[in-house]
Amino acid sequence: MNHWHMYSFRYSFLMLLVFWLFIGGSLNAYSQDEINAQHILEKADESRAPWGDFSMNVMIENVDNRNNNTKHLFRVFIKDYIKSIVYYLYPIKQRGNLLLMVGDDLWFYVYRTQRPVRITPIQKLTGGASYGDVSRLSWSIDYIVDSLSEERVMINEKIYDSLLLKLMARSKSATYNKIDLYVDKKTFLPLKSFVYLFSGKKMKTIYYTGFSKIAGKTMNTKVEIVDHLSDEKKTVMLFSDVEIKKVPERFFIKSNLHELSGSIVQ
Predict the structure, then answer these.
(1) For residue 114, what are the contacts with CB-CB under 8 A and spacing of at least 6?
(2) SS3 for 203?
(3) What are the start-end ranges of the E strands in the chain?
(4) Structural domain for 210, as ranges
(5) What's the pLDDT at 172?
(6) Cα-flanking dihedrals φ and ψ of residue 67, to 5°?
(7) Which of 176, 137, 178, 142 is nearest to 47 (CA)?
(8) Which value, to the nearest 10 degrees, does the dihedral of the CA atoms of residues 10, 11, 15, 17 take?
């Protein structure tokens, strides 16, 4: 009888051990998948904001269905990856206007009224570009990876082996509610994305079509947007004149906007 109890105890202990090893292995594998997906997203981010502090010009060109073009030029300053201030350069009548993003707060400052107005990142900046498309360049901060899978995609008649990251917004500063982001399987550079409204409706298709080597790092310097809510109109964003240096903290204080409006860009 004692032998039977001892055998039963050992058998139960062995089965329990196998069970916990199985569960533990599954949990470890799941956690590793999450870690890998987050790492891929961070690598994709590196091409959008390769440095914590830098500034650049952003030219936005809108093309309507009649091939009429309009252009806007901005100087964008990024600090610590998540703070940004955007200075309007062109058209001249908008020069001196500012966008300020700190944390989850986005402010639009109109130099004529000298009043900052709170806005949301998804609101239209010009054409198919939203405010958040120039003021917020960190997917890995604003989104979590809901799923990761492999998929072959065609862009400009070229087929790519890609990874599809389905992203869900996790902060108020996120420009979109959901993003389907395709990145190159080998380099993790972004290829294209579908972005969605809170209703689930597809808002835009965004193509990441140009990359440049700057100070030893690869940077996404051309983005093409197709606006599905505005007759499939196209918008092209070009990033240039990159300057890598510390950006002053005073640029990101709301009470300084009046002063900055006339002095941030000489």
Answers:
(1) 258, 261
(2) strand
(3) 54-63, 69-79, 83-90, 98-102, 105-110, 115-119, 124-126, 129-130, 143-155, 158-169, 178-184, 190-196, 202-214, 217-227, 233-243
(4) 46-263
(5) 81
(6) 65, 25
(7) 137
(8) 10
| Per-residue confidence (pLDDT) for residue 26, from 0 to 100 | 38
CATH number of residue 155's parent domain: 2.50.20.10
CA distances from 59 to 85, 111, 131, 241 (A): 15, 21, 14, 11
Radius of gyration of the chain (CA): 24
Residue 19 lies in a domain: no
Low-confidence ranges of the chain (pLDDT < 50): 1, 4-7, 9, 11, 17-31
Number of domains in the chain: 1
Judge contact between 96 and 108, C-beta under 8 A. no
CB-based contact 116:122 (threshold 8 Å) = no
Question: Which tokens hold the place of 24?
Answer: 């533990």
